[in-house]
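Please, is this right?
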Amino acid sequence: ATAATRPPAGVGAEAGAVAVGQRRRSLTAARLEPRDVAKLQATVRILACDFLESRGFADEVDQRRVVLNALSICNLYGEKCTDGAGSCRWSGLRVALDHYSARGISACAVISGQFARRHGSMLPSDLRSKAVVCLDYDKCLGDLMLIELAKRLNCQFVDNLRYVAYPVSIMTAEAASWLQENHSELKVEFDFTSSGVFIPNEPAEFVEI
């Protein structure tokens, strides 16, 4: 990678180094220098491209797809469906992935920095082929990746974050514009029943690209 595209130190997409944390949108982005923002954006583009190509998503133009925010899903599942309210549970992500798989939809999950340390440092093997892992660098990296993937696939993205809390100020112009134009139609919020049933507020659908 050139100096303009080389990922900042501490950023990667390795499936074995995940991190867990609370649902947060503290914008360390507000303290980033313009040069660091540019590097962060380049990193997101590179990781998104590599992930989609490695999973074959880039060539599946006729297949229904959806992108999931793993932290949002696992946190809510932990609050509503398991002992120890407020803790993350991988089972929630499995339930959501199975929900879409049963409907013939290809789902991939974004696992942000600060995701799994309190529940094990390794991403479970059954989830590795379905997830892109963003290592620690900036707390917004997972959100940037979520929107970048959804933009590239022009598909629904599953997340309970309010629109105003997305780090639009450090997104590329293309990503910010796509989010503004599409969040009302393509953003899917969700809930879980006490028995662990995943309930999206919008049915899964295919968007022509």
Q: What stands out?
A: The longest strand covers residues 106-111. Residues 34-55 form the longest helix (22 residues).
